[in-house]
User: What shape does this take?
Amino acid sequence: MSDLTRMTAAELAGTIAKGDASAEEVTRAHLDRITAVDGKVHAFLHVDADGAIDAARKVDAKRAAGQELGPLAGVPIAVKDVLTTRGVPTTAGSKILEGWRPPYDSTVVERLRDAGTVILGKTNMDEFAMGSSTEYSAYGPTNNPWDLGRIPGGSGGGSAAAVAAYEAPLAIGTDTGGSIRQPGAVTGTVGAKPTYGGTSRYGLIAFSSSLDTPGPCARTVLDAALLHEVMAGHDWRDSTSIPQPVPPVVEAARRGMSGDLTGVKLGLVTEFDAGEGAEPGVMAAFHDALAALTKLGAEIVEVSAPHFQYALPAYYLIAPSECSSNLARFDGVRFGLRVGDDGNRSLEEVMSLTREAGFGAEVKRRIMLGTYALSSGYYDAYYGQAQKVRTLITQDFNAAFEQVDVLVSPTTPFVAFPFGSRTSDPYQMYLADLFTIPTNLYGGPGISVPCGLSEGLPVGFQIMAPTMADDRMYRVAAALESAVGTLTPPSLEG
Amino acid sequence: MTTTTLPTYDEAIAGFEPVIGLETHVELGTNTKMFCGCPTDFGGEPNTRVCPVCLGLPGSLPVANKAAIEATIRIGLALNCSIATWCRFARKNYFYPDMPKNFQISQYDEPLCVDGYLDVEVDGKTVRIGIERVHLEEDTGKTLHVGGATGRIHGATESLVDYNRAGIPLVEIVTKPVPGAGALAPEVARAYVTELREVIRGLGVSDVRMEEGSLRCDVNTSLNRPGEEWGTRTETKNVNSLRSVERAVRSEIIRQSAVLESGGRIIQETRHFSEETGDTRPGRSKETATDYRYFPEPDLVPLAPDPAWVEELKAALPEPPRERRKRIQEAWGLSDLDMQSVVNAGAVELIEETVAAGATAAAARKWWLGELARRANEAGIDLASVGATPAQVAELQTLVDGGKLNDKLARVVLEGVVAGEGSPTAVMEARGLAVVSDTGALTAAVDEAIAANPDVAAKVRDGKVAAAGALVGAVMKTTKGQADAKTVRELILERLGAG
Assistant: This one.
């Protein structure tokens, strides 16, 4: 039998359904792989081997009983540690939640369980999803399987690295400003941010409520689409969840795999294509991919999005503002870390000491930024103004989508960078999300698909679609994948 | 602190004009909490009516309760407000352990209802109180400070938090400033809260019990000299009864007047009213410096009540209590004073239903304001929960009118009804309390009494009719009060030839 860890999710589901391998065998193969390589990669914060084996056996029993299996039944999956898992530690990459075992499953996790996927464990991330490199994880960074001295992207570097290192065929990420797509780009994997409201946030430990979106990580576009369909759909427990059917992303991915894009108009954002701030190698790979797409019949149309240049500053007012409020609940009173409760100190002192010890520097920076931006007398100038920019960016997207079917850009301006090279200046780190942030402010879907290498490291190609037209980006992504192929990182053995 | 002699109220108010304002919080009687499915009923073991949402656990999200939104709109409509066609919830950020998320979901610059009024009667005059806004928010948990002498945080060894109340829907009703009430300001404040309570009770959206905290009141007071600008206001919290509302305003007017007369300045601050002393004490002064950093709640979609739905709710509003009272007062032929006592006892509806069940207004009023009010008072409960229904009271009166019960027996029967022994007829029969009207049985009892008291009987025979009272008493004793006293007397006089 071929190596089970090298198969795609679609292949594994077929293998299990046919009985060529049991779900338990598939799961054990991946647990073995984790044991073998995660010491080097550090993609996982918690491996739930017992839970995974149990889940796999249930799928095998179901199959033995002749019951129908879902499209991903028995397929292992890794979950970003920002989504609650009942009884399984959930830290959001923070010391303040060390040891916390949630009493409930997030909706996404509940749907994964219902679909019979096998949850292997929880993946590493920047603390509270704030960062682009996993260097801000309280539990140490994840290493990029392409070069262990480089960052795997962030915040969902653990999920992307687990997929790239064949520790899991699928993973769940969450994307607030690029936290699925940018790690996908720098690890040579596929990462999709669905339409905001297309996937439920219930059980997602909030960073920025109006931006956070759970989505799939995979090695192929079809696998991402299969996972997208399992995890998406209306959830009454999330008021911002959209009560509409899930866009037909699997069908669109299969159609795109045929390699025909005749009549599809791709919008090239002129402001991004100027290449300002982007590495030449990244721009070169991006343009090669554009040429490949043209060969498949796509038409390239230049479109202007004049307000995209204000997306990064607007984002760094809105997201910190929301996080300053969302993270207020971590006070040591009801759950998680409590510091200094010696029976003499006041409640306020204990809260302060807990937050002082429990939050990392980047989280504190953003809480302070947001607290300032929301404070009386500054609200209009900062938070209020940022919301206006958000409206203008949405108008740019709407105007563009009157001319084209999707927008395209590089996913991130630069390939995976060495550890420590962008931590001294926060702005240099924030630039990693320059191309991904506009989509979050607009609320539409975006996907990153590998399009080649620059300096031996993966480059991601981003496709952005109108809200609830997620299927469009899957079609184009699958077509590009059929043209340029998937990427294989160097071996981690030896 | 130096002891200064405070002026009397009349002295205090003589040189100043007060401006008052009231903020009232009403806990809605919905089945479930504002943003989750936990039950809302009062009581229950601490922290048993909680879930990830109302505990603010990481990852949990709120979902707005439609019944609470409907109730708030109905309150707004009953207070003559405009209803927003589009509005949002907002986060009010501050750290306090009884607030699970360290922010409260409330409404800020986009309340659900704005710009209404409520007319109240004070001293025979109608005063129109402007309503600034009516908005919806979530209640906090309750903190219990254990180990201290006062139950306050000072001196306590432990603080316990019960989150059962956290997330219960709370409606905040804010008046516009009320100037011009003059010396009647305390009465106006009380009349407003009384009337507001009636309105909300009439809507059936809350039990509005001040003693259980389902209606809570903060009172703002300021003083200015005639012709001058309004003064600095203070906010008095912990005003937990109608009487306290009046007392709090009165005491704050006296205190502020003393400060101003001595050349001092009023500090804008939160003060606490003490039921024991009847005065106000300063609260935490740093509260005034709090910046709540309000911003629109991103976890909830905007509220956009369908205007057609709002119209439907408006059309279905009950008759306003004030109009209803006027109509009833006329129909029942009550004086203003009598009507006031009925209103104060919370008996309007009960009497109305008793009348509808067949009793006269006078009889219904007699029972509810007499025997039943006494029992409710003794038990410290509302008249409505005293244990007797309007239908039962009407039935009781029918038994009295039909001569089956006398007044004394009726009270005993009522005791059985309140104790849950069944309908008045059932209690009467089960306890054997019916008036003995069988003259045969009575004659025997009368003869027995005459035989046992020959001296008294002789006096009566001699024409001293007043002496018959002793014989009546003896008969009543042997019949255990079940005889009709008038009939007994007639029988005795007839037997003794003195009739």
